[in-house]
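Data card: per-record layout.
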Amino acid sequence: MRRFQTIRAYLFLLPFLAFFVIVTAYPVIYGGYLSFFGQHGARMWYVGLNNYKTVFTDPLFWQGFVIVLFLLFIQIPGMILIAIFIGLLYEKVRVSALYRFLYYLPYAVPGVVAGILWSYMFSKSMSPLVALWKLFGVANPEFITLKSVPWIMLVMILWEWTGFTSLVIYSALVSIPREYAEAAEMDGATWLKVAYYIKVPLLRNTVFVLFIFNIFGAMQVFNEPRMINVLFTLPMNYTPAMYVYNQAFAYGAFTYAIAMCLVLAAVTFVVSFFFMRRSMKELDVHA
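The structure for this 287-residue chain is written out next.
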């Protein structure tokens, strides 16, 4: 009987497993195989670990992590703090589903479309902000410079992801038993104190998951700088993902790009694992 149940469970999982192997596992394994080869056009030859040695000694690849660090230490904490504040307002004001939908709507816009939209907003010739700048006496404003690009990316990512994150926070808030807040209010606690001392600490697990998923996004950021690059020429290695893309499609170094992808995946795993271990220790301490 147990064997029959096991077979039935595997048959139930078979469509997903087949899809996972074909779409995810096989390309990764085959890409790992190709990373041991050099390439020039259609000609390939075995080079062993040379591609990986080149990646680890390639300063252009590692320079792209400056923007990744900016996102890790500025964008992610800032976005989660804003999302927590909005989520608390959702719960206090009891806004309608329409308002929550409007906040969520930017997340539903494809990343490339969002990049085009914001590229238009910061365009020197087409931006509606040009008229606003003229009111302050600036005739030809330069919205996009090499120093301003990280902050423009910050605006784009916050606009795209904060609404979704605030809904996740709100979903966690409504699952908190109301008795906790009611007991604190009976003791004289204000709404701010209830939020700070009771509700926000109970969001610890949700925030932990959001941090992990946002680390993945920061490591792979591509759409936003790619769209900005249409208006303002960025370095080919502005982010690791851009450098991989340029190596593959601008220079035709596909096997070297594969090696960089795998190294980037390994770095993402290490950073996520380190954060996960630290967070788990914090959760154990506060448990």
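Known properties of this structure: Residues 67 and 150 are 7 Å apart (CA to CA). The chain has a mean pLDDT of 85.

See the next section for split statistics.
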